[in-house]
Specification:
79% helix, 4 helices, three-stranded antiparallel beta sheet, 4% strand, coiled coil, mainly alpha, Tcp11
Length: 313
């Protein structure tokens, strides 16, 4: 069945035979303005279906649902026409009423069929317009997508070029920073080596100065020690000279004493020999005795002289 409103025309059909399946919703612009009492004549089931939420359907689904609705209407019309056929009854008042009722029902069916045909034609025209609009929208979307894709490709290419330029710039900056870091490192190493060389020179100069001062101090100490040694040596030499003079004097004194003793001994020997000259002894024995005494005396004198020289030396 169909219903119209001031905002448009809506067509709702349901499967009465099977009791399952989705209905068909059609929305058309208000080309004609039917009476507002048509909405009140809609059955409760259709009003409930019309008040339900709609979901967008494609043209193929709408065509299939229209065909199913047409098939159900034909079945319904056949049932109604079978009911409206005149039966073999007696020509009475009730039969005339049935015939009249059948004619009215047939007229209503024809009117409904014409209206259904017009609604179907309008629906097909709207479907054609919707298809054209869909195709136009699709082509527009495709063109827009293609345009956006081209713009996106251009943007991506520009970004890639910009990224490559940024990468090259970063590489250049990194190389420059690396070169600057190397230069700073070389300069710092050079400054450090110069500072170390200066420090070494200062240390060497300080060590040299300390060595010179130490050498001067050592020479001064050596000179002082040498002077002290010379003074001590002079003192020792003086003492040695005095001792030597004293010993020489003692030696000369002892030498004189020995010579005196030798002279006295010689004199005593000569005196002894004179005294014994008159004794009764052979001259040979006397010579032996005197010779032995002289040797003993000479040995004693030589021993005494050696002892004196050792003690004096």
């Amino acid at each position: 069945m169909a219903s119209s409103s001031p905002s448009g025309v809506e067509l709702k059909d349901s499967e009465t035979m099977s009791g399952a399946g989705a209905g068909v919703a059609l929305s058309f612009p208000a080309n004609d303005s039917p009476s507002p009492s048509s909405t009140s004549k809609l059955p409760r089931r259709l009003r409930r279906r019309l008040s339900e939420s709609r979901c967008p359907s494609t043209a193929e689904e709408i065509e299939a649902k229209l065909k199913e609705a047409d098939l159900r209407r034909q079945q319904f019309y056949e049932v109604l026409s079978n009911k409206a056929r005149p039966k073999q009854r007696s020509l009475s008042r009730s039969s005339f009423q049935d015939v009249e009722l059948g004619q009215r029902l047939e007229a209503k069916l024809n009117a409904a069929e014409q209206k259904r045909s017009s609604i179907i034609a309008e629906a097909r025209m709207r479907l054609a317009r919707l298809d054209e609009m869909r195709q136009a929208a699709k082509s527009g979307v495709e063109m827009r997508v293609e345009k956006q894709r081209g713009e996106l490709v251009k943007k991506v290419e520009s970004r890639v070029r910009q990224a490559e330029a940024n990468r090259m710039l970063l590489l250049k900056l990194r190389r420059q920073r690396r070169a600057a870091r190397k230069e700073r490192t070389a300069q710092s190493l050079m400054r450090r080596t110069m500072q170390e060389s200066k420090y070494k020179e200062c240390v060497r100069a300080a060590i040299h100065q300390k060595r010179v001062a130490a050498e001067r101090k050592r020479l001064a100490l050596l000179e002082a020690e040498r002077l002290k040694a010379q003074a001590r040596l002079l003192q020792v030499q003086k003492a040695a000279n005095s001792v030597h003079v004293q010993r020489e004097m003692e030696r000369i004194k002892k030498k004189h004493e020995l010579e005196d003793r030798l002279q006295r001994a010689r004199k005593q020997r000569i005196e002894f020999l004179r005294q014994r000259k008159g004794a009764n002894c052979s001259p040979f024995a006397y010579d032996i005795v005197t010779h032995e005494q002289a040797e003993n005396l000479a040995r004693k004198l030589s021993w005494c002289w050696r002892q004196f020289m050792k003690s004096s030396g």
